[in-house]
Design goal:
The chain contains eleven helices and no strands. It has helices at 2-25, 31-35, 48-63, 82-94, 100-107, 111-122, 137-146, 156-160, 179-190, 198-205, 209-220. One heme C (HEC) binds next to helix 3, helix 4 and helix 5.
Length: 223
């Protein structure tokens, strides 16, 4: 009886955590997606050819032909987890992630368009990047791998994985991303400009400019 009580407590705790996570991730990661790991939330398969066609017509000018943007302010999208891309597109459209340029483009897309584009991008190979700042690289590596213990900053590697590939579907790929874009996003999380992720707001809140610069540069070279 005692054992059963323990089990029930444990499972109700798990349920609470899952609910909390589902809320944080909404609307991109419904609970169903967690039970059927790779399957998309809706039954129909994404149409990769349609995704490629829409991306090529509209998005490639800024994000590169295969999703490997050559412009440091525009993120690389190739090989990013589709669920993450989908969440961002939905949140640009709804305004939860506030960006005037991307709101315009995301608003023209239906849910199916978003899904087709996101899964096509996920199938493309990401081009690696490079770290550039020799003076800051040790600091960047320390923060990425170990966090900052005395300020309770969690290690980035714990969620984004040691090589920056992320963990599908919850934690996006960051390795090889442009340092300028990473720096802008970390600063936006910290300053409350990007408000679509509580964990990242909490992580970034405790980083100063120099630490953000260091970790952004280190991540750009991760592969
Ligand atoms: C005029 C240039 C431009 C065009 C065209 C454009 N984007 Fe973007 N995109 C950006 C910029 C700049 C950002 C970074 C926004 C920010 O700072 O939050 C971005 C961000 C994104 C992100 C978030 C990536 C991440 O890592 O969080 C996604 C997804 C995205 N764009 C997809 C698209 C798609 C799909 C299209 C076509 C329908 C498109 N973009 C068209 C400039 C553009
Ligand atoms: C508790 C887990 C967790 C930790 C620890 C964490 N992150 Fe994140 N990070 C996330 C999640 C979840 C997202 C996706 C946010 C969203 O859905 O918009 C994210 C998004 C990001 C993004 C935006 C990516 C993009 O393409 O726009 C950057 C940059 C980033 N994290 C960097 C870091 C850095 C640097 C650290 C360490 C200082 C770190 N993260 C620690 C969970 C975490």
């Amino acid at each position: 009886m005692k054992l059963i009580a323990h089990l029930m407590l444990a499972s109700s705790l798990t349920a609470t955590v899952v609910c909390a996570m589902a809320q944080e991730m909404k609307p991109a990661a419904p609970v169903a997606a967690q039970t059927h790991a790779a399957a998309p939330a809706k039954a129909s398969k994404p149409d990769l050819a349609k995704g490629e066609a829409s991306f090529t017509a509209v998005c490639s000018a800024c994000h590169g032909a295969d999703g490997n943007s050559a412009i440091a302010a525009n993120p690389k999208l190739a090989q990013q987890h589709p669920q993450y891309l989908l969440k961002q597109l939905q949140e640009f459209k709804s305004g939860r992630r506030d960006n005037a340029v991307m709101k315009g483009f995301a608003s023209t897309l239906s849910d199916d368009d978003m899904r087709n584009i996101a899964y096509w991008l996920g199938s493309k190979q990401a081009q690696p990047g490079f770290a550039k700042d020799k003076q800051l690289i040790a600091m960047g590596e320390r923060i990425y791998r170990g966090g900052i213990a005395d300020r309770h900053v969690a290690a980035c590697a714990g969620c984004h994985s040691p090589n920056g590939a992320g963990i599908p579907a919850q934690y996006p790929r960051v390795g090889g991303q442009h340092a300028d874009y990473l720096l802008a996003q970390l600063t936006a999380f910290r300053d409350g400009v990007r408000q679509n992720s509580l964990p990242m707001t909490q992580v970034a809140a405790k980083l100063n400019d120099r630490e953000i610069k260091a970790v952004a540069d280190y991540i750009a070279g991760l592969r």
